Amino acid sequence: MIKFFGRVAIRWKIILVALLTTVAVLVAVAAAIFTYDSVSFRRRMVRDTIVLANMLEVSCAQAVVFDDPRSAEEALSTLKAQSQVVAAAVYGKEGNVFATYMRSGLTGWEPPKVERSGHRFEKDHLALFKTMEFGRKEVGSVYLFLDMTALAARKADYAKILTVDLLAAILLAFFLSSKLQHLISGPILRLVGVTKEVSEKKDYSLRAQKETSDEIGLLMDGFNHMLVEVEKRDVDLQDKNEKLREQGEELRQKNEQILDSIRYAQHIQASILPLPEYLSAALPDHFVIFRPCHIVSGDFYWCHRSNGRVFLAVVDCTGHGVPGAFMSMIGGSLLRGVVVEKGLTDPAKILEHLNTGVRETLQQTVEHLGAQDGMDVCLCVVDEESGSVSFAGAKRPLYVVKVKGDAEPELVELKGDRSSIGGRGETRSYSTKIVETAPGDMIYLTTDGYSDQNGTTGKRFGAEPFKTLLRSIAKGPAADQRQRLELALDTHQGTEKQRDDITVVGVRIQPGKGTP
């Protein structure tokens, strides 16, 4: 009902309100008159019946005292003149029926048991008992049973009158409201027209014409005042939008310049990474997964081949993006200085010199000066002839998966030392571990980006599932391993953003297989 009423035009709403109000008022008035008339009719009928009972008492009380039923029946027979009386009875003192009267045509009626003086309504009838006295002594009772169908007839007449009056009032109300509704709906509809025109043309200079000084006139004033304010704000907004457009264009150009610089920095950073041909010559069966988080990376991998040894490192620098990339440039340069220029071959000694170089480069040796930036490193030295591997780690492990024919591959985790590279503090020392490997075994060097990547459920990939995955793929060729690792990562990550740089390097131990 409310939804329907909300879709009706305002002129019809006014007419409907007038009609409903008219109907409601007429029904309420008719109900009041009908109720009052019904109550008055009943009271009048009770009062007349009591008078009739008093009259019967005078003539019937003496008949009961002198035990003269014939006189009592003659007195009751006078009730024939009262058409509404259906039946009557006179009772003796002991409640015995002394005399009765029934309207002509009434059969099967039995007088009820005598009751105390009073009356009650039974559907369309009135029943009344009256105690008779003679000489101030109770001698019996008189009972009257009256027909009240006259009241039902009055109700039917009232219903007909109400129906006729209601229809006439509805027609009159409809006629008057349809003629007068335009006094209210007209200004509102014209206001709606102005509103629609303003909305379509976006012309806030338009104004609604005020026609009255009532609430609709106040609405017009408020609407016009709103248009004035909107027009002012529209002008201000256009000016601000123009300025924002200019600022946005300027910001876009600057952002493009920054991105161009970062993309160029990506090429520079790529120059410190080993060429694929170089890696393939040193490590024939290997793969690399390298996924920077923000174009340039705080991760990097490094390889150097010299005197029958292959030096391989995966490094996770503090931060990612541009800050991490700066650290990776420093790390790559320092590794080259320590291994190539100084000729160090022991992984632990390489990390110690790398730590010293980072602290000196970032001035971390000077108190209250220099940043706390550093890097986590997994460093291996592979003997090309024997296939033996020596390892040292700064907060990063080395995973070794031993592949033995048809047996289930076994993963061994060699933990790195707890100290990272760089940062304030005393000179740090690192330990070298010799890895027992056999031809066909796999070694994996990683940063923490893969296992720390969130999935669509908010959970990290995890270190244990990562190690389980490495065991399951270790027997396959390096290219297949890379595909399975990337598929597992993409499936887990889904639509989640990459949270850190990701680097994974896998190498198959193949003694004597390096390209000369």
What does this structure look like?
With 516 residues, the protein is an alpha+beta fold. Helix content is 49%, strand content 20%. The chain is built from 12 helices and 15 strands. The strands form 3 sheets. Strands 2-1-5-4-3 form a 5-stranded antiparallel beta sheet. The longest helix has 56 residues, at 10-65. The radius of gyration is 55 Å and the shape is elongated.
- The radius of gyration over CA amounts to 55 Å
Mean pLDDT: 86
Give the termini distance in whole angstroms: 91 Å
Number of helices: 12
What is the helix/strand order? HHHEEEEEHHHHEEEHHEEEEEEHHHE
Instruction: Indicate the percent of residues in helices.
Output: 40-55%
Kindly state the number of beta strands. 15
Structural class determined from secondary elements: alpha+beta
- Parts with pLDDT < 50 across at least 5 consecutive residues: none
Task: Specify the biggest β-sheet.
Answer: 5 strands, antiparallel
Beta content: 15-25%
Principal-axis shape: elongated
Output the strand order for the largest sheet: 2-1-5-4-3
Keywords for this structure?
516 residues, alpha+beta, five-stranded antiparallel sheet, elongated
